[in-house]
Structure formats: structure tokens, C-alpha cells
């Protein structure tokens, strides 16, 4: 250990003691997110869709653990859209066929068909060179499956890559499909929600270069979102509105600050959370890392929508009450890692880097590294905690409090980044101890988020 640690701790013993009287302590959504489930495993649900079933939210997305080729479509469940539990894989890798090795299976979305009492999943099916461009279909009697795969096709012979689903209040359902030749298409589905209906698409957006479609409806107005065709590169996504699914559709407009490139992400889904007091629409998008798809991040934000206009603003952390539909911005209270300087092990060390919040961090050595950071809360409750760190490789950290231990995955990053973990804290003064596992990482700070 460095002999100057004692002096430095005098200068860097920086932490905030705060009162939470009359403040609701709830868990919240932090972005950008590389989130872990309730077992401490990295959530793999990229380009997801979400369905509410009997008070539980179920999420299906892409498993990118080993990169682009299809691996599985996992199913997760949550009561609050924050704490997620892995349930099972709804679709798994097969020996051959559309779901076989070296295949593309993307953007799975699920809707429920009342007529047949079954869940219908549609997804983008393709070859690794993206030359097949088909939509695939699977069905199940339960939300998490397992699903029975039916097959894939091109709707009316048209290309179908990025896709989405929308089910209207009249039970009619629609496939949103990116057609590189003709433009974004809207197809009505048949009564079974399995095949396209009629002889052609309902709407074709000629001369518009949009993919990654998502659609929602509010106060009898339809809002359709899409991303420009810029590959893995991000762009200012846009939206259009209409009083009818058949159109006419209005001029496309941006809904995030111009030049923000949709907060460096691409739209995938809009989730309506209908509460007793209001409905909040959650904009869901992906921040893709093409060379490390496994660690691509989730961007979920509340939408401001009224009278045919919509806007999405950045919220680093926010809380959504799924019962009332109300949401609140988060306020973070920071505790610098240096405040626990005197508690570190002999192999841990203080490191200096101008990219850190105050120029310093604590490097925790692999396997045995740990640090205790003093905090104080007024109420025994569950809290969302953010860890700001760097790590050369993916590793796990354990957050130990007087109420238990909570694991979180730290994706590799050479620049200061953050992950969140939901922990239980006991009222009063206590020490939060952060442990490293296998891999070394540098910890700049932790923060508790108030809503």
C-alpha cells in the first residue's frame, strides 16, 4: 500500500450524508444500461419487445452472447420494468433450418391472439449476408413458450428485414417491415396473426429510407417511429403520425435533439404503461456495439406526447410507477471510492487519471480486491445503486450491505462507464463493500439514486 494513503484519505473522504424524509425510495431505470438480472447475470435481450400478462411484463429479445449468429430468444419477466428474472429460452438453436447455426434471427416481437388463445412471435429471419430478408413466425400457448416455429416468408414477395408488430384496440394486428427496394411497409395480418392479409401492403413509404420500425397509438393518433438506413452507425430517428393506419401519414419529424443521433441509439419498441393516473409511453432503443454485440446497451426513456407531437428527452435515471403510470427523474447522491481508502487490501491501490470524476479511483485487484464505502440512509428499503468504473475485461462485482449481497456484471470499458445494481439497505449509517471477482477493475464512485 502507498504510504500516502492516510494523507490522501483526508482530502478525498468525500461522501454525502442525506435525509430522505418525505422522499419515496423506489428502484429506477438507469441509462445507458448494461443491466444484470436478479441472479447477477448479464441480461441478453437486445432489440426487444415487451408484453404485459396478468400483472407481469415479459420481454423477448436477441441473445448476442456470441455475436450476430442466432443463439436463442430468451424470455425475461418483471413486475416493475427494473428487476428482471430470466424465465427460459422461448426459441433455441436448432441443428439446421432458419433457427440453425450461422443464421440471423432478429427483433422478435410477440402479440396475443384471442381467437386461437395463443401467443404469436414474429421475427426477422435471414442468412449471414442478409440476402434472404424474410419474416419468421412461431406460436405458443404460454408467453415464454417454448414456441413452435412455423416458418418464414417474404410478404407478397417483398423483402422483409427490420420488423415490428402493432396490435390495435379493435384486435387488428399489423406487421411493420423494412423493404430495401420499395420502402418501409405496413401489412395487416390475418385473423390468426400468422400471415399477411389481402393482396398487398396497407401502406408503402416510397422514397423513405427507414428501418427499425415501432408504432404506438395515443388519443386516436398513430405514431410510427423509424431509423434511417445507416448500418451500425446511429442517426436522428424520426416519426410520422396519422389518424388511420391506412394513412395518409404526415411529414416525418425528429423526436430527440437534432444531432444527438437519438442519443446514439436506434429505436426498437414503444411500451405503453397504462396506470390509474396516466399512461406513460416508454421509448426503447439499442446502443449497438458492432464489435462487441454482447455488451450493447439499452436506452429506455419516457415519451412526452400530445396532440400529434412527441418528444424524448435524456434522463440519466428515472423511476416509473407501473401502477399509476407516473414517472419521476432521478437525483444521484455520489460517494467517492476514495472515502473507503483506509479499508482496501494490500494489493488494491489508488490510481490517478484525469478522466475520473475527481481525478482518482481505486483499482481493486482480481479475486481478493474489495473496498468499504460509508453511506447513510434514513429508511430501510431497496435502492438503485450506480457503479462508475473501468475494466479491461468483463468481470463481476459483488455489492455487500448489511442486508445481503448483490451481484452485477461489469462490461469491459477503457473509459469511465457505469452499471446499476438494485440493493437492499438498512436505515442508518453503514458500509457498502464492493468486491472484485477474477478480473481487476477500477472504481471511481458509487451513487444512490433518489426519486
* Class computed from helices, strands and strand pairing: mainly beta
What's the Cα radius of gyration? 23 Å
Beta-strand percent range: over 45%
Portion of residues in helices? under 10%
* Shape estimate: globular
Please give the oligomerization state of what you see: single chain
Describe what is shown at a glance.
By secondary structure, the protein is mostly beta strands.
Structure description:
By secondary structure, the protein is mainly β. 3% of the residues lie in helices and 51% in strands. The chain has 2 helices and 33 strands. It has helices at 5-12, 261-264, and strands at 29-30, 46-53, 56-62, 72-78, 85-92, 103-113, 118-127, 134-140, 148-153, 163-167, 173-177, 184-188, 203-205, 210-218, 221-228, 238-242, 253-254, 266-274, 279-287, 297-306, 309-312, 317-320, 327-329, 331-336, 349-352, 360-364, 370-377, 381-391, 395-401, 404-410, 413-425, 428-437, 441-450. Strands 24, 25, 26, 28, 31 and 33 form a 6-stranded antiparallel β-sheet that branches. The protein has a 4-stranded antiparallel β-sheet with strand order 2-3-4-5, with no helix packed on it. The relative contact order is 0.14. Residues 1-25 have low confidence and may be disordered.
Amino acid at each position: 500500500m502507498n504510504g500516502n494513503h492516510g494523507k490522501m484519505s483526508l482530502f478525498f473522504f468525500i461522501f454525502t450524508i442525506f435525509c430522505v424524509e418525505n422522499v419515496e425510495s423506489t428502484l429506477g431505470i438507469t441509462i445507458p444500461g448494461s443491466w444484470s438480472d436478479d441472479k447477477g447475470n448479464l441480461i441478453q435481450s437486445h432489440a426487444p419487445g415487451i408484453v404485459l400478462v396478468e400483472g407481469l411484463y415479459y420481454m423477448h429479445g436477441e441473445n448476442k452472447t456470441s455475436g450476430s449468429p442466432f443463439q436463442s430468444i430468451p424470455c425475461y419477466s418483471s413486475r416493475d420494468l427494473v428487476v428482471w428474472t430470466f424465465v427460459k429460452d422461448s426459441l433455441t438453436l436448432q441443428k439446421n433450418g432458419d433457427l440453425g447455426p450461422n443464421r440471423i434471427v432478429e427483433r422478435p416481437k410477440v402479440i396475443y391472439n384471442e381467437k386461437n388463445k395463443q401467443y404469436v412471435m414474429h421475427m426477422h429471419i435471414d442468412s449471414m449476408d442478409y440476402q434472404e430478408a424474410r419474416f419468421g413466425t412461431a406460436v405458443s400457448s404460454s408467453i415464454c413458450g417454448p414456441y413452435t416455429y412455423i416458418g418464414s416468408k417474404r410478404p407478397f414477395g417483398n423483402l422483409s428485414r427490420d420488423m415490428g408488430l402493432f396490435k390495435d384496440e379493435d384486435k387488428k394486428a399489423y406487421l411493420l417491415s423494412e423493404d430495401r427496394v420499395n420502402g418501409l411497409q405496413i401489412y395487416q395480418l390475418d385473423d390468426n396473426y400468422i400471415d399477411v392479409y389481402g393482396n398487398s401492403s396497407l401502406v408503402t413509404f416510397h422514397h423513405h429510407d427507414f428501418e427499425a420500425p415501432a408504432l404506438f397509438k395515443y388519443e386516436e393518433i398513430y405514431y410510427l417511429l423509424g431509423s434511417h438506413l445507416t448500418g451500425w452507425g446511429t442517426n436522428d430517428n424520426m416519426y410520422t403520425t396519422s389518424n388511420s393506419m391506412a394513412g395518409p401519414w404526415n411529414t416525418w419529424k425528429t423526436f430527440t435533439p437534432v444531432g444527438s443521433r437519438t442519443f446514439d441509439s436506434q429505436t426498437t419498441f414503444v411500451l405503453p404503461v397504462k396506470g390509474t393516473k396516466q399512461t406513460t409511453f416508454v421509448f426503447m432503443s439499442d446502443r449497438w456495439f458492432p464489435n462487441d454485440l454482447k455488451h450493447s446497451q439499452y436506452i429506455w426513456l419516457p415519451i412526452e406526447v400530445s396532440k400529434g407531437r412527441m418528444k424524448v428527452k435524456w434522463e440519466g435515471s428515472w423511476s416509473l410507477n407501473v401502477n399509476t403510470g407516473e414517472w419521476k427523474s432521478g437525483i444521484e447522491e455520489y460517494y467517492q471510492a476514495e472515502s473507503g481508502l483506509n479499508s482496501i487490501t494490500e494489493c488494491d491501490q489508488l490510481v490517478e487519471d484525469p478522466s475520473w470524476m475527481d481525478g482518482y479511483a481505486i483499482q481493486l485487484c482480481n479475486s481478493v480486491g474489495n473496498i468499504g464505502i460509508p453511506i447513510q440512509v434514513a429508511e430501510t428499503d431497496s435502492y438503485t445503486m450506480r457503479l462508475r468504473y473501468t475494466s479491461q475485461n468483463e468481470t463481476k462485482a459483488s455489492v455487500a450491505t448489511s442486508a445481503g449481497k448483490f451481484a452485477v456484471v461489469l462490461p469491459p470499458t477503457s473509459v469511465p462507464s457505469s452499471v446499476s445494481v438494485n440493493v437492499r439497505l438498512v436505515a442508518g449509517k453503514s458500509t457498502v463493500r464492493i468486491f472484485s471477482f477474477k478480473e481487476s477493475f477500477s472504481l471511481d464512485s458509487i451513487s444512490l439514486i433518489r426519486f
